[in-house]
Amino acid sequence: MKALELKPGDRILVSRTDRLGDLILALPFVETLKGRYPECHIEVMSSLYASPILENNDRIDGIVRVLNKQLVSDRLYKKDLLQKIKQSSYQVVVALYPERNICQLFHKSAIPDRIGTAGRFHSVFFNHRLLHSRKSNKKHECEYNLDFLKFFREGETVTMPVVYPREKELANARRILKEAGVEGRFVVLHPGSGGSAERWPLDRFLKLYSDLETSGVQVVLSGSEKEGEVIDSRSHELGLKMRQITGDTDLRTLAAALSLADVVVANSTGPLHLAVAVGTKVVGLYPGKAVMSPARWGPLGRHDRVIVPASKECKCPPNECVCMLTITIEKVASEVAQLFDQAE
């Protein structure tokens, strides 16, 4: 396949407007593109929620933040976004995540080179199409993103996502952790999930917290304010007192806090990939469903651990997975202890 002809100063837009973890796994593609085209201006379009992880990255020249709900329901917002895209005069757009409304805007804005996947109804909005199906789950999501490099010149390929906390964010994270009673080495447990994968039950996380603390490992729980309220309620019922930073961090401060941890334990969720991207070892808890497989969505760190249920052919209804109960607290605690010892 012949590479697109790009001139110095040409503007390239990479679009990945879905979840946090998806955007993190798109970072290697973005950084590779900038490495191969340092003379071009590279911008990334993402959801407003996930966009902060793009900041402080010298291989990203601009960020276009999208309100996904308004894009679907607000015609004026959609019209304003179209004008913004037109005014930016992009030469190329790469739709790593081909959301229909976004792709229609790329077509309407008449970007000369519009790259996306073939085989979908809205593939008509692209004039360069990549034929691959992610439904087969044959390889990692990061690799599926890197497939789009076929349209560009050869060169160095970045394979690991990296998020870059600022010094002030690290200082803020240290303050928040200290206020929560965390000093020295520690493990983060992140029980929540964005809903895209089955969860290990909260009670298992709380018992894991208690067992790790008993073994001499300092632990803190992270999550949203709403998740913190659920943790408070349940830990009170169980008579447990736990350190938390739930609701105390924005996304970048959470990234900083995770970077200071020795190990992070989480379900298949964005913060798991965020921990990997800031260089922290993780233990990921994954269901036995092909669409949620660690082969497609697992952590990319060399030393990270993945634990899956005993049954790898899960037939459970969504959000009612009993297979996750076969992941034992003892198994998770053992993996955490091994990684914690390696971090010394």
Structural notes for this entry:
- With 344 residues, the chain is of the alpha/beta class.
- The chain has 2 domains: 141 residues, Rossmann fold (3-Layer(aba) Sandwich), CATH 3.40.50; 176 residues, Rossmann fold (3-Layer(aba) Sandwich), CATH 3.40.50.
- It contains 13 helices and 11 strands.
- The strands form 2 sheets. It has a 6-stranded parallel beta sheet, with helices on both faces. A 5-stranded parallel beta sheet has the order 8-7-9-10-11, with helices on both faces.
- Strand 9, helix 11 and strand 10 form a beta-alpha-beta unit.
- Helix 7 packs across helix 10 and helix 8 packs across helix 13.
- The radius of gyration is 21 Å and the shape is globular.
- The termini are far apart.
- 44% of the residues are buried.
List its traits.
344 residues; alpha/beta; Rossmann fold; six-stranded parallel sheet; five-stranded parallel sheet
Summarize this structure briefly.
With 344 residues, this protein is an alpha/beta fold.
Q: Helicity level, as a percent range?
A: 25-40%
Order of helices and strands: EHHEEHHEHEEHHEHEHHEHEHEH
Task: Order the strands across the largest sheet as they lie in space.
Answer: 3-2-1-4-5-6
What is the CATH domain class of the largest domain? Alpha Beta
Give the CA-based shape. Answer: globular
Q: Give the number of domains.
A: 2
CATH architecture term of the largest domain = 3-Layer(aba) Sandwich
**Category by helix and strand content:** alpha/beta
Q: How many β-strand stretches?
A: 11
Treating each run of at least 4 consecutive H or I residues as one helix, how many helices? 13
State the CATH topology of the largest domain.
Answer: Rossmann fold
Ends: how far apart?
48 Å
Low-confidence region ranges: none
Q: Give a quick account of the main beta sheet: strands, pairing sense, barrel closure.
A: 6 strands, parallel
Portion in strands: 5-15%
Based on CA atoms alone, the radius of gyration comes out at 21 Å
Q: CATH homologous superfamily of the largest domain - what is it?
A: Glycogen Phosphorylase B
> Average pLDDT across residues?
94
